[in-house]
Design brief:
Elements (H helix, E strand, L loop, with lengths): L21 E6 L6 H14 L3 E4 L4 H4 L9 H12 L3 E5 L7 H6 L26 H18 L5 E5 L14 H15 L2 H8 L28 H29 L5 E2 L1 E2 L10 H4 L7 E3 L8 H15 L5 E5 L18 H11 L2 E6 L25 H19 L5 E2 L4 E5 L1 H7 L13 H12 L5 E4 L9 E4 L7 H12 L3 E5 L21 H4 L1 E8 L11 E2 L5 E2 L2 E8 L3 E6 L13 E8 L2 E6 L4 H16 L12 E7 L5 E8 L5 E4 L3 E10 L5 E15 L2
Parallel strand pairs: 1-2, 1-9, 2-3, 3-4, 4-5, 6-7, 7-8, 8-9, 11-12, 11-13, 13-14, 14-21
Antiparallel strand pairs: 10-22, 15-18, 16-17, 19-20, 20-21, 22-23, 23-26, 24-26, 25-26
């Protein structure tokens, strides 16, 4: 990867203040009368709030008429915040246009695949390829930057907001023209594009770039060109990124010393944009993360935090949004359980966040998000939520004083690789199984490794995964020539890699690597599969699952492995199923010697539980050490370390619904829903419990 990240630049405290863990949330004073603002300042001081994101959706109030700007109300709010010791992450307010703009220029509204217009009435009803919208947005950015360039309370810029949350895809003529230019820049000639898109299939050859159109509606049940669709997803991410970069550069030209970021939406299942690609274009990474209800809550949160750290290339990052409790946009909006507000925040902190913020400060009285929880709820400040918010503020202040800001996340010996574009390719409607996608497999591996006591790092495919002791490539469907070479070089030099089904299937254009699966790295893993074996389509008598010789069960998909190299050991086969399946005795898990290293292959989807069952034997065969202690998977342990002083902060989280004992390393300094014994050497963690201890590494 030749492109370089922007130089890391972190929001600094107002002059005279010490660096601290940032703590706060979105603040929307324009939704409230001014007599509430004074109360807010007092409550923020009580809670320990030291930063707010301001004016995210305030364009209509900042520019009530075209060219008429009103900053007086915002000046007053910023002055009040500064006097209260609260810094401001000031938004560009461009996330949604005012009604006067869309009334005068309806051409800025995006269109769906059928050509229907997205009319005003919600948010993000603009298209990133509209030159008209860009002109208005940049005018606002420059006005804000000019007005606040010398304001010491404004410590950072919040550019846009959750790009692509609602306007990821646009199929208008503006988008068509931009897509044509994007393709010309990418491929150079129409001949190269025809080859990349495989247009010989179904008579789709193009004679000129002007014949390119977005993947508009093609009829119900039909199948669009997968290579074109993949490129359109890349283009859509790039189009929004280009709009962000224009806003960023307009601000940076006027206020070069104020760091800039925008809030990503990184979670296990959110593939809106290629956030790793976007990570190159921010001064510091920010993220909005909302919890997954149910038993996966803690693990998904830790997984996502690790992925954010990977996107940030292990620099500190800011949790821009999370919820204190329920959100408003699910079918059922579950509340957080007691303890989870504090626990969830400390998980993010343990994964490298140096700032913890919420959406939002005060729960809205009206509007679409009025049932979204906040730091101050409809019930006011005499609530469990606000008391927990204040406790969290005290915890963050204590951790700042203990020196956590000088400690970075300790690198795991194991990397689990993630790839946005592999997910995009597996979303196509004509694949071996619509139940099989990329994103679920990395999460399953992260959780299964945690079950056997290993906390893995989640690393983007562009990242430094080939510097780890062991690597998992989980359903990395797209593996281009460069990454295939990285795999080969890594293992040949002594690396240990675990490759799963649905890896190395296609190149960057979604063209199949020929010769059998996994096509681009068959020699490395030492096996060849002739076919996919999908399972569980609900038909009577159809294959529903496969039982492995180690007692595990495969579901959804398996590989029909018909040959193995002489250097390959077969660890597990399929057994015990009806003989008509043709799978009895077929290899399921193998290990191959390649160069100085080893490559395992897991040829079926096992899910978290069956992976955890299979990992001890697999890791033993590869010489990957697992913790000796029984029950090590009951705790999630994270660590941040000051490399200069050796000061280490260990975070312990209970992964179960039972009480769990933790042997502490160092002196406990923070605990919630946990009891620490008199000697301070052990702790009993309740469900949702957490303990943070501080010690010294020799």
């Amino acid at each position: 990867m030749t492109e370089q990240h922007r130089k890391f630049k972190w929001p600094q405290p107002v002059k005279g203040d010490r660096p601290r863990i940032w703590f706060g949330g979105d603040y929307n004073p324009d939704q409230w009368p001014e007599d509430v603002w004074e109360k807010d300042m007092a409550y923020m001081v009580k809670a320990g709030v030291n930063i707010v994101s301001l004016a995210i959706f305030s364009w209509a109030k900042l520019e009530p008429e075209e060219g008429v700007f009103d900053f007086a109300w915002l000046d007053k709010v910023i002055d009040m915040l500064g006097s209260s010791g609260v810094a401001v992450d000031l938004a560009t307010s461009t996330a949604s246009p005012p009604m006067w703009l869309t009334q005068a220029h309806p051409e800025v509204l995006w269109q769906d695949e059928r050509g229907d217009v997205c009319w005003p009435g919600a948010r993000q009803h603009w298209k990133p390829t509209s030159p008209v919208y860009r002109e208005y947005a940049l005018t606002l950015c420059r006005a804000l930057a000019t007005h606040y360039k010398d304001d010491p309370t404004v410590v950072a810029w919040h550019v846009g907001n959750e790009y692509g949350c609602h306007n990821r895809f646009d199929y208008s003529d503006d988008a068509k023209n931009a897509f044509q230019l994007w393709c010309k820049e990418r491929y150079g000639t129409i001949e190269n594009l025809n080859k990349a898109w495989g247009t010989a299939f179904w008579s789709q050859e193009l004679n000129d770039f002007t014949q390119i159109i977005p993947p508009r509606f093609i009829g119900k049940g039909n199948f669009t060109n997968p290579s074109r669709l993949l490129d359109f997803k890349r283009f859509s991410s790039d189009a929004l990124k280009s709009f962000y970069e224009a806003e960023r550069d307009a601000l940076a030209e006027i206020t070069p010393d104020k760091p800039l970021s925008t809030n990503f939406m990184i979670s296990a299942g959110n593939m809106t944009l290629d956030y790793d690609d976007w990570g190159y274009q921010v001064d510091f990474v920010s993220n909005d993360h909302y919890f997954t209800p149910g038993e996966a809550h803690l693990d998904e949160l830790a997984y996502s935090g690790s992925l954010i750290s990977g996107v940030a290339r292990r620099h500190p990052w800011l949790l821009m949004e999370q919820s204190t409790g329920a959100v408003n946009w699910r079918t059922i909006n579950e509340r957080k359980e007691p303890g989870q507000l504090i626990r969830d925040s400390l998980v993010h902190l343990g994964m490298g966040a140096d700032g913890i913020c919420f959406f939002q400060w005060r729960q809205s009285q009206a509007g679409a998000e009025k049932f979204h929880s906040a730091m101050i709820s409809h019930a006011g400040t005499d609530t469990e939520v606000f008391r927990d918010t204040c406790e969290l503020g005290q915890d963050l202040r204590a951790l700042t004083e203990e020196g956590l800001l000088d400690a970075g996340v300790v690198k795991s010996p194991v990397a689990v690789v993630f790839d946005y574009q592999s997910q995009w390719a597996t979303e196509h409607s004509a694949t071996p199984s619509q139940n099989v996608h990329h994103w679920t497999e990395p999460l399953d591996w992260f959780r299964a490794l945690a079950d056997v006591g290993v906390r893995a790092d989640v690393v983007p495919v562009r990242g430094d995964w080939d510097t780890y002791e062991a690597v998992v490539l989980p359903s990395l469907y797209i593996l281009d020539a460069d990454n295939s070479r990285r795999v080969r070089d890594y293992v040949a030099a002594g690396g240990k890699i675990i490759v799963t089904y649905y890896t190395g299937i296609s190149d960057q254009n979604d063209h199949i690597w020929l010769g059998g699966y996994p096509g681009s790295i068959r020699d490395v893993v030492g096996v060849r599969s002739e076919e996919f074996v999908p399972m569980g389509d609900g038909k009577d008598g159809a294959l529903d699952h496969l039982t492995l010789s180690n007692g595990a069960r495969a579901h959804d998909i398996a590989d029909y492995i018909t040959s193995v190299e002489d250097t390959t050991r077969v660890l597990v086969t399929y057994s015990g199923d009806d003989p008509w399946s043709g799978m009895i005795g077929v290899p399921a898990i193998t290990v191959n010697a390649f160069g100085k290293g080893q490559a395992a292959y897991v040829g079926c989807r096992l899910g978290r539980e069956n992976l955890a069952l299979s990992l001890p034997e697999l890791c033993k065969a590869m010489g990957i050490a697992l913790p000796d202690s029984a029950g090590s998977g009951n705790l999630l342990r994270l660590e941040r370390l000051n490399q200069e002083t050796g000061q280490a902060f260990a975070f312990y989280f209970n992964r179960t619904r039972d009480k769990v004992a933790a042997q502490l390393e160092g002196v406990p300094i923070i605990w919630s829903h946990a009891e620490v014994d008199a000697s301070k050497e052990t702790a009993i963690l309740e469900p949702n419990g957490v303990v943070v201890s501080k010690g010294t590494r020799k």
